């Protein structure tokens, strides 16, 4: 978790620490795991996904007819200690037979080499391979993707600008049509994307946000949102960009409140959207409305990340303090302390520090 100082004195809003946590499941078997550990990717047939990242590997298996999923993770350190080598079953290009791989064009072979380098956790080798085909949309996309992982956001933006959306996927779909990339959307969220227009837009947003180009990020998301208004990931990203901006425009905050008014707290991702909606209300100086919003979503605990529920209570506690309702604030802080005594400055807020 992280504390972010967001409210601007120029807005006439008291500056307060807004703790924000998001680790959510957007669909069965698809988990957004929030980290900034570098790029990773997953692939495999329906019902199975193999994910490779800088921390290790994760295999997700669907159990037919049950709707249940089983995930097994293994760190790179444990793999080395066991003297094992990753299985090539389901790896990029494994759907292609020997003769099919022989018939690949030079550009396609470079692309396949780049994916295989990523599988080996060799980002430098992958970048070198993709650079050889940066004149193609898929090659440039992957160069930008790796640049994001290296925190080279200006360079990432340069590569994404070279991509023609209608050309994306021409190589990747041939090499492995099931390929998905995992992109860090926020300080905590890692979302699955494909090499297509939506994936490109989300990558642009990440590059823009990291450079402080909030208007550009919003423009990218708006263009996609107009045709994909049911996409909760886009909704979450757009709402976050607006509400987390250092100087949030009142008109945009009003738009956030309007576009999320029909969101029902059915899934963890809904909880996160409504959590941000509450903060938008607060930044519009509607503190009582923000408290009511937080109170509504904190009641639903099933399948919600415990840390998210603690963050909701912490934010509500701060708002209670601001409006002088110290007893209610203390109840939230006591509940947080009961679950996690080390949480933020809750010990100090309860007067328990020595």
Order of helices and strands: EEEEEEEEHHHHHHHEEHHHHHHHHH
Largest sheet: 6 strands, antiparallel
Given as residue ranges, the uncertain stretches (5+ residues, pLDDT < 50) are 1-50, 52-56, 59-90
Report the portion of residues in β strands.
5-15%
| N- and C-termini, Cα separation | 24 Å
CATH fold topology of the largest domain: Serine Threonine Protein Phosphatase 5, Tetratricopeptide repeat
CATH architecture assignment name of the largest domain: Alpha Horseshoe
**What best-fitting shape do the alpha-carbon axes yield?**
elongated
For the record, the CATH class of the largest domain is: Mainly Alpha
Task: Give the helix tally.
Answer: 16
**Structural class by sheet pairing and helices:** alpha+beta
What's the CATH superfamily of the largest domain, by name? Tetratricopeptide repeat domain
DSSP strand count = 10
Radius of gyration: 22 Å
Overall pLDDT metric: 74
**Count of spatially separate domains:** 2
Share of helix among residues?
40-55%
Q: Assembly type of the shown chains?
A: single chain
What does this 3D model show about the protein?
The protein has 16 helices and ten strands. The protein is α+β, with helices and mostly antiparallel strands and 354 residues long. It folds into two domains: 21-64 and 90-211, Tetratricopeptide repeat domain (Serine Threonine Protein Phosphatase 5, Tetratricopeptide repeat), CATH 1.25.40; 213-348, Serine Threonine Protein Phosphatase 5, Tetratricopeptide repeat (Alpha Horseshoe). α6 packs antiparallel against α8 (197-210), α9 (214-225) packs antiparallel against α10 and α12 (268-283) runs antiparallel to α13. The chain is elongated. It has helices spanning 76-81, 98-102, 106-119, 123-131, 137-149, 153-161, 172-175, 197-210, 214-225, 232-243, 250-259, 268-283, 287-298, 306-322, 326-339, 346-349, and strands at 3-5, 17-19, 24-27, 30-32, 40-43, 48-53, 56-63, 68-75, 180-184, 190-193. The chain is 48% helix and 14% strand. It has a six-stranded antiparallel β-sheet. This is DUF4236 domain-containing protein. TPR repeats lie at residues 310-343. Keywords: TPR repeat. Residues 18-71 form the DUF4236 domain. Pfam families: DUF4236 (PF14020).
């Amino acid at each position: 978790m992280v504390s972010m100082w967001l409210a601007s004195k120029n807005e006439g809003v008291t500056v307060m620490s807004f703790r924000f946590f998001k680790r959510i499941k957007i669909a069965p078997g698809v988990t957004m795991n929030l980290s900034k550990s570098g790029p990773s990717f997953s692939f495999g047939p329906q019902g199975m996904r193999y994910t490779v990242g800088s921390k290790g590997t994760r295999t997700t298996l669907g159990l037919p007819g049950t709707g249940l999923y089983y995930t097994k993770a293994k760190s790179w350190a444990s793999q080395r200690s066991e003297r094992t080598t990753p299985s090539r079953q389901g790896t990029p290009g494994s759907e292609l037979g020997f003769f099919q791989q022989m018939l690949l064009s030079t550009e396609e072979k470079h692309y396949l080499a780049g994916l295989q380098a990523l599988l080996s956790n060799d980002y430098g080798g992958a970048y070198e391979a993709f650079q050889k085909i940066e004149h193609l949309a898929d090659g440039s996309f992957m160069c930008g993707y790796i640049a994001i992982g290296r925190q080279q956001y200006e360079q990432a933006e340069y590569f994404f600008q070279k991509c023609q959306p209608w050309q994306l996927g021409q190589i990747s779909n041939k090499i492995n049509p099931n390929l998905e990339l995992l992109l860090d959307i926020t300080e905590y969220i890692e979302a699955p994307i494909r090499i297509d227009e939506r994936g490109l837009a989300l990558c642009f947003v990440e590059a823009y946000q990291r450079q402080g180009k909030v208007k550009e990020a919003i423009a990218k998301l708006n263009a996609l949102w107009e045709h994909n208004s049911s996409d909760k990931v886009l909704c979450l990203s757009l709402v976050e960009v607006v509400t987390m901006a250092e100087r949030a425009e009142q008109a945009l905050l009003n738009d956030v409140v309007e576009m999320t008014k029909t969101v029902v707290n059915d899934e963890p991702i809904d909880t996160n959207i409504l959590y941000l909606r509450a903060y938008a209300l607060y930044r519009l100086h509607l503190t009582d409305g923000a408290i009511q919003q937080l109170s509504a979503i904190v009641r639903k605990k099933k399948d919600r990340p415990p840390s998210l529920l603690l963050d909701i209570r912490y934010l509500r506690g701060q708002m209670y303090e601001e409006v002088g309702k110290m007893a209610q604030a203390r109840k939230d802080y006591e509940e947080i302390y009961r679950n996690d005594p080390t949480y933020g400055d809750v010990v100090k807020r309860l007067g328990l520090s020595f």
